[in-house]
Amino acid sequence: MLLRAASIGLLVCRLLGAQSMSSSASDQANPAAAAPEAPPIVSCPAGGPLGAVDLRVRSPNGGDQPLPFRTINHLSEGDTLVYAPILRGKEKRPGEIALVLVPAKRERGQDLLEVTDPKPADKPQVWKMTETVSLAAFVYGPQGLSRKKVRSFLSQDEVLMAQLADYADKTAQAEALVAALSNSESSSASVNAALTGFASQYGFAVQIDRNAPPAVQAQTLFATMNPQLATYNPLASSTAARAGQTASLATTAAALFFGSPVGLAAGGTAMLLDLRSIAFPDTEFRASFAQPLPQSGVNLCGQQAPTPPHTRVAYLWASRIPNAPTPAIRIADADFIPLTQKSPVPVDVPEPEWKYLQRARNWTLVNDKQQKTPVTVLKLGNQRALEVDLTKANLAPGDYHLTGYWDWTPFEAAGEVHVLTLEDFKSAKLEPASQDQLLAKAGKIPVTLAGSDFEFTTKVELRKLGDEFATAEPVRFLLPKGLREGPQEHMDVQIDTHDLDPGEYQLLISQQDGKSHPVDFKVLRNPPKFDNLPILANQGVATQHYVLKGERLALLARLEAPGAILDLGPPAAGESERNITVQLRSSPQPGTALPIKAYLEDRSEPLTFPDALQITGPLPVIASSKLSLPTGMVIAIQPDEFPAGYTLTAMLDVKNIERKSVLRLACADDVGQAASLHVGEQTGASNLQQLSQDQLFLAFDTGALPAGCSLEGVIDNGRDGTSQPFTLANIIRVPQIDSFTLTGDSAPSTVTGDAAPSGSHAYLLTGQNLEMIEKVGWDQTNGVEIGGLPTPLPGPGQKQCLSLRLPDPPNAQAVLYVWLRGDKQGRVTTVKAPPLPAPATPPASNAPPSTNNPPVVKSPPGSRVG
Predict the structure, then answer these.
(1) Which of 71, 149, 237, 798 ranks highest by number of CB atoms within 10 Å?
(2) Cβ neighbours of residue 241 closer than 8 Å, sequence gap 6 or more
(3) Quick check: 178 and 289 in contact, CB under 8 A?
């Protein structure tokens, strides 16, 4: 916006410089402006510099304080415009200047425009206003001007007046955009506002993401306004060259204003084309805009393309003079801003003060001691907000009033601006209840962060710890009040755990300074699952044992129940079992049901299981069991299985057993032979001993049980009743593997009939019960199906063999996997792959081998199991 004001200033300066409303000698000399300071070297983003000037306005109401013209809101009767060229070294300012003024009010019969006589551009000038001006245009001719031509050029046409006003607005928007893009310290919000204003001035509705980097915002605008710039990359010089510009955003904006070959053919350019159509043939008018210099100076930029023969160039610069009243500003909500940052403060301002609010000057923040601190304030037109820049302000946290000047008139915004420091989030953490809810693979979970002031949060990201390839992903968050609307001690965040594994993570919280602050948390495993609740405790027994079964039982930290002490043993492998010792502090009546609270790792609140501890009466109960599998098994056995033909050994947790109790064993489907074992009885096929008041030791020969038997046990107390059936194990017939050898036979398998493919060998498996094997392989997922039955071997017993063909093992240490009939996955065995034969040595002579006598490969010795 400063560029826009600067353009206005320079335009009016030169136009007014040409006007001579007083012919006195004092009008021809301006001692106050005779020796302006030489400006720094300024390069225009597009076109070339036409010259720098110093332009100020004096007012009877302003005392001895002249103001830069670029911030002037009123140019009224009695005001004085002071103009002087700013020259560097021996620079000469050729040509003439003329000023075109549009009165704010026109009497009947009065000209629409007032055009001054052309004056030398290299001399200071002073003009005193005789009426209020609403628009000023500055015409500069480096080769001189003709007042007659200027007046003819700017004919008394209402349509042309509207075009001139539109051109002034476009000039201001272009200057503001060039200023924002040229300043490396411009915030994303200020660039977004300038881009939006530039687009709206040319009639384009562009959706620009104000959170995107400024270069991306500018590229979106330029590509929308001109499809030829859709591939424009501000950082790639080759693309910029194709667009006919240098690799500069400001250059593109300025070129669009000028109407370059790849720019716009609209707006100000269209107006200039209309003016050319009525100008004298030997004068070409071109657009120009201004760049602000220190203090009140401006640098004028214009196109300097080659001029046709016998043609003079004149540069036109126009600006509105709003003559708007002192703005009545009311600060709206979101009036909390952080120190050292640029922050938007929403305001309510009536029109037309809002339209020209960028011309307010000398902004300050005033504390309760009336101490003033200068600050830079920029209007964000697309947000209806003022950007307050505290990056260089020496302020302490507190409440302030925002003040400024409208020309020479001071004003104060209604309301306060609250300045606070940014948080470091060192004390921020997830609320305990939120942490407990974060379960892996559970989906979208809302959680609450607390412990800090989150009011300035602009972004939250999630990152997994311990993963060097993990990238931070944005997550949605919600402030209870809103951004910059006052202290907010908690913040809601939505975390999607659908694809998250259990482990340690961080939330990265960013504020306006762009720095991220980590808050650690955990994504938890799912809670334990219990398969055999309730826990049964016998009335009157002080200490009792129970085997808790389920999933993820290692997560249990402790269990609590009223009137009882529950001691947890270490979890078993696979976390599916856990021993519990129950001590009752009293003797509750049979049938009493008590709740259990389960305290878990990394959780603040326990899980409550109602009626999870039940007191039983004299009815005998088999509460749980623990099997002991035979050692030396060649083929792996599942936890709920037991191989037929072996002696089943188990520890039984029982309730209400007596000396006369009998354990009855039978298959669930009543097949096979049932057995009845008395407590303390030992035979050649069974043994049942009482180890404690609620523990029995069982040894039972399963040789008489059929494969597929689901062995159940029942405690029978005679007249006191019997227990419910309890499944001890599923009896399965497990093959016995005696040997696994490499036969060296290259013929097709006698079992499957397969040919001998490359990279495979024939093997021979010997043992018993081999008909139970359905597939074999080298891992638990890829098995080769057995296509036939085993072959019996001569001799005593029921020895069998299976010939099969397998692909070569993946390594020398590979072990065999077998699938019993009905298995979904292979079972690991202790059988190792036999060594493969060495490759055949080629014949020493060059003669081809005889096809009638192929070489014989001797089979290596077989691999015996065990």
Answers:
(1) 71
(2) none
(3) yes
Which ranges of 202-322 would DSSP assign to H, the alpha helix?
A: 214-225, 237-242, 249-258, 268-278
CB–CB of 644/702 below 8 Å? yes
CB-count exposure of residue 865 (10 Å: 0-12, 13-18, 19+) = middle
**Beta bridge mates, 401:** 366
Query: Rounded distance, CA 190 to CA 210, Å?
Result: 9
What confidence score (pLDDT) does residue 54 get? Answer: 84
CA atoms of 469 and 345, how far apart (whole Å): 40
Please name which of 122, 133, 146 lies closest in space to residue 81, comparing C-alpha atoms.
Answer: 133
Rg of the chain taking only CA atoms, in angstroms = 47
How many whole angstroms separate alpha carbon 672 and alpha carbon 668?
10
Q: What is the mean pLDDT of residues 29-50?
A: 60
Query: Residue 791 is which amino acid?
Result: T
Distance CA 485, CA 293 (A): 37
State the burial class of residue 326 (Cβ atoms within 10 Å of its Cβ: 0-12, 13-18, 19+): middle
SS3 of 804-843: EEEECCCCCCCEEEEEECCCCCCEEEEEECCCCCCCCCCC
Q: Could you tell me which residues are beta bridge partners of residue 508?
A: 461, 518
Whether 135 and 164 have beta carbons less than 8 Å apart is answered as yes
What is the average per-residue pLDDT within 759-780? 92
| Backbone dihedral angles phi then psi of residue 826, each to the nearest 5 degrees | -70, 155
Query: Phi and psi dihedrals of 553, rounded to 5?
Result: -75, -15
Residue 766's DSSP bridge partners are 739, 801
The string of pLDDT tens digits covering residues 400-445 is 999 999 999 999 999 999 999 999 999 999 999 999 999 999 999 9
Q: Among residues of the chain, what percentage have pLDDT more than 70? A: 77
Residue 666 burial (CB count, 10 A): 20
Tell me how far apart the alpha carbons of residues 292 and 299 are, in angstroms, rounded to a whole number: 6
Instruction: Answer for the pair 645, 798: CB distance below 8 angstroms, yes or no.
Output: no
Task: Give the burial string for 291-321 (b: 16+ CB within 10 Å, else e).
Answer: bbbeebbbbbbbbeeeeeeeebbbbbbbbbb
Q: What CA–CA distance (Å, rounded) separates 754 from 736?
A: 25
Bridge pairing between strands 417-420 and 336-338: parallel
Per-residue pLDDT, 778: 95
Cα gap 649→408, rounded to integer Å = 103
* Alpha helix stretches (DSSP H) within 355-513: 432-437
Are 787 and 753 in contact by the 8 Å Cβ rule? The answer is yes
Q: Provide the 3-class DSSP secondary structure of residue 619.
A: coil
Cα–chain-centroid distance for residue 155? 59
Round the average pLDDT of the chain to a whole number and report it.
80
Look at residue 259 in the predicted model and tell me its pLDDT.
58
pLDDT, position 474: 95
Alpha carbon distance 594, 586 (integer Å): 13
Task: Say how far apart CA 296 and CA 58 lie, in whole Å.
Answer: 13
Q: Encode pLDDT of 795-827 as tens digits.
A: 888 899 999 999 999 998 999 999 999 899 999
Q: What is the pLDDT of residue 128?
A: 85
The reply to whether the predicted model has a pTM over 0.70 is: no
Q: In 721-822, at which residue ranges do the beta strands (DSSP E only) sit?
A: 726-732, 736-742, 760-768, 773-777, 783-785, 791-792, 800-807, 815-820
Average pLDDT over residues 699-717: 92
User: pLDDT grade, residue 745 (50/70/90)?
Assistant: low
Least confident of 102-106, 569-573, 792-796: 102-106
Gap between the Cα atoms of 377 and 216, Å rounded: 24
User: d(Cα 414, Cα 331) in Å, to the nearest integer?
Assistant: 6
How far is it, in rounded angstroms, from Cα 690 to Cα 655? 12
Nearest to 101 by CA among 144, 70, 132, 141: 132
